[in-house]
Amino acid sequence: TGMLFALAKAANERVEIFVHNLKSKPYIDLSIQMLLHFGYSVSHSGYEKFIIEPGNLAPETIIYNAEGDWSGASFFLVAGAIGGNVTISNLRRESLQADQKIVQVLESVGAQISWNGAILKCAKADLMPFEFDATDCPDLFPPLAALAANCKGESVLIGRSRLVSKESNREKSIIDILSKMGVPVKTEKDSMWIMGGGGIQAAKVSSHHDHRIAMMASILALNANDAVEIEGADSVRKSYPGFFSDLQNLAVKMNIHE
């Protein structure tokens, strides 16, 4: 995506980029959609050849509505599914953001989902286990791990190989937190199995300096049998500085220590 933006801006002649075995295709789709909106000519052939034509055909005045962030919203949607009712505004139903897939998963497990324009509501329900391939949306792994811990049965998340080189080794981070909170988890090949429904234990855990792991631990804590302490929780500032304020607005009890 960085190459697409840089070369679309700088190219003074046709540019072709060849890619083998591209991952996270939804992020490429989102990037191309943005570039087209701003007048750049970018296309691809089967996600293996990308073509950039020089020039910018956009008018001088461009109006763009920045849609809500599905990555941050996914944690709160899971919170609604396992703990109560959550309403989130400014979400685009037809968004190309990879993490919009969270809605598909929540519907499949039985959460109560309803749309009203750009407003999405998610309400608590008895949740069934699920299987989901997160290869193209690896940032959903942490919120889905929290969801799986609250489903009655064994859920399967595919694509764990995509977790190694994030802000932490998220495979190890997720396993560490789930294990400390009493949630059985095992891995084999590219999959992670999480056994939910057996209760979530209070524990002292680390965010591993990873914003999404800190958020995952916070959502897991909602149904824990006692208080959960999260070290390095300030890592949420990387992508969602207001995360804990929004949790408090949902009447979640917490103490924050700088």
Blueprint of the fold:
Blueprint: H1 2-10, E1 15-18, H2 25-37, E2 40-45, E3 49-56, H3 70-83, E4 85-88, H4 102-109, E5 112-116, E6 119-123, E7 131-133, H5 141-149, E8 153-158, H6 170-180, E9 185-188, E10 191-196, E11 204-206, H7 211-221, E12 229-231, H8 243-249
Parallel strand pairs: 7-8, 11-12
Antiparallel strand pairs: 1-3, 2-3, 4-6, 5-6, 8-10, 9-10
Helix pairs in contact: 3-5, 5-7
The strands making up the biggest β-sheet line up spatially as 7-8-10-9
Major pleated sheet: 4 strands, mixed
Average predicted confidence as pLDDT:
94
Counting helices, strands and paired strands, the structural category is: alpha+beta
The end-to-end span amounts to 35 Å
Tertiary shape: globular
Low-pLDDT regions: none
Estimate percent helicity. 25-40%
Which sequence of SSEs, written as H and E, runs from N to C?
Answer: HEHEEHEHEEEHEHEEEHEH
The Rg value, from CA coordinates, equals 20 Å
Please report which band the strand proportion falls in: under 5%, 5-15%, 15-25%, 25-35%, 35-45% or over 45%. Answer: 15-25%
Number of strands: 12
